[in-house]
From TrEMBL:
Keywords in alphabetical order: Aminoacyl-tRNA synthetase, ATP-binding, Cytoplasm, Ligase, Magnesium, Metal-binding, Nucleotide-binding, Protein biosynthesis
Cofactor(s) for this UniProt protein: Mg(2+)
Cofactor-binding details, from the entry: Binds 2 magnesium ions per tetramer.
GO terms (BP aspect): phenylalanyl-tRNA aminoacylation
Name the UniProt record assigns to this protein: Phenylalanine--tRNA ligase alpha subunit
Gene that this polypeptide is encoded by: pheS
EC number: 6.1.1.20
InterPro entries, alphabetized: aa-tRNA-synth_II (IPR006195), aa-tRNA-synth_II/BPL/LPL (IPR045864), Phe-tRNA-synth_IIc_asu (IPR004529), Phe-tRNA_ligase_II_N (IPR004188), Phe_tRNA_ligase_alpha1_bac (IPR022911), Phenylalanyl-tRNA_Synthase (IPR002319), tRNA-bd_arm (IPR010978)
């Protein structure tokens, strides 16, 4: 047994000496000290050794293991030093080069505007709900009282994937999905990216963001809608802001309105920013159409509600007096650093 251990030690020493890389050295470790290594096999064969000889044989095995491990460790240290020396020769650092400038990022104007809107509505008891950007036509149109063949489908210039699926043209489908759950009352806003096949110009983009709100409860009236949006406008544009509701038509609300706010640049007197009118249009709104409630499983005789929608980019453009929407997407740090 002692001769066998001596042979294992000599073989291990020879292979360690021939190892010229850390990978080969590790192979030697596995071959002799691993679970299926030669020295491990000797330990497993101890049951065949006479009981009175086991202590001495065990001592020989441990001494052999210790010598092999020491040889492996000494060789590893030498190989690692050689590798480091080669790296230092190859990775020469020119200390005369200028240091890399560390730039700290910050929030995009859209993100700043969105967080402000979310803060306002969360403060009024609303929750923020998100939904899929690739949507079924049923949710994007039909459940919003826009059946197949309705002209509003053409007006939205939707990107169609097939005859049942499209890229959502509004975040209203999130409202329909929430109403279907039947967990009433509902107070929510649905921010997110939407898609329409618009030409890119100063005020249009094929991909932009909307924030839509929905309230469903008993005894909700247009007065609740008016008060909510007045408070929202004052929080967003300043306490002196006034609102004006103009009759309009949306398929999913009845009655419907568009909302203007008094120009925060001139205080409503008329200037270049508001094109001399003293008012700036910001969003559309209305009372949820009874048929929309029915399609989503809500009894319109018991519940009523209101909805509104505003473009996130429009808020950012107005709040920060940006005159071209394209600036938000060009990733020019000289522009973005201003916010």
């Amino acid at each position: 047994m002692k001769e066998k251990l001596q042979r294992i030690q000599e073989e291990a020493a020879k292979r360690i000496q021939e190892s010229d890389s850390l990978e080969k050295l590790n192979d030697v470790r596995v071959a002799f000290l691993g679970k299926k290594g030669e020295l491990t096999a000797v330990l497993k064969g101890m049951k065949e050794v006479a009981a009175e000889d086991r202590p001495k044989v065990g001592q020989w095995v441990n001494e052999t293991r210790a010598q092999i491990e020491k040889h492996l460790e000494d060789t590893r240290v030498k190989l690692e030093a050689a590798v480091m020396e080669e790296r230092l020769k190859a990775e020469v650092i020119d200390v005369t080069l200028p240091a890399k400038k560390m730039e700290i990022g910050h929030r995009h104007p859209n993100t700043i505007a969105l967080e402000e809107v979310e803060r306002i509505f969360i403060g009024m008891g609303y929750e923020v709900v998100e939904g899929p950007e690739v949507e079924y036509m049923d949710y994007n149109f039909t459940k919003l009282n826009i059946p197949e063949g309705h002209p509003a489908r053409d007006e939205q210039d939707t990107f169609f994937i097939d005859d049942k699926i499209c890229l959502r043209s509004q975040t209203s489908p999130v409202q329909a999905r929430t109403m279907e759950k039947g967990e009433l009352p509902i107070r929510m806003i649905a921010p997110g990216r939407v898609f329409r096949s618009d030409e890119v110009d100063a005020t249009h983009s094929p991909s932009f963001h909307q924030i839509e709100g929905l309230v469903i409860d008993k005894h909700i009236t247009f007065a609740d809608l008016k008060g909510t949006l007045e408070e929202f406008a004052k929080e967003l544009f300043g306490p002196e802001t006034k609102t004006k509701f103009r009759p309009h038509h949306f398929p999913f609300t009845e009655p419907s309105a568009e909302v203007d706010v008094s120009c925060f640049k001139c205080g409503g007197k008329g200037c270049r920013f508001c094109k001399g009118s003293g008012w700036i249009e910001i969003l559309g709104c209305g009372m949820v159409h009874p048929h929309v409630l029915e399609m989503c499983g809500i009894d319109p005789e018991e519940y009523t509600g209101f909805a509104f929608g505003v473009g996130l980019e429009r808020i950012a453009l107005l709040k920060y007096e940006i005159d071209d929407m394209r600036l938000l997407y060009e990733n020019d740090t000289r522009f973005l650093k201003q916010f």
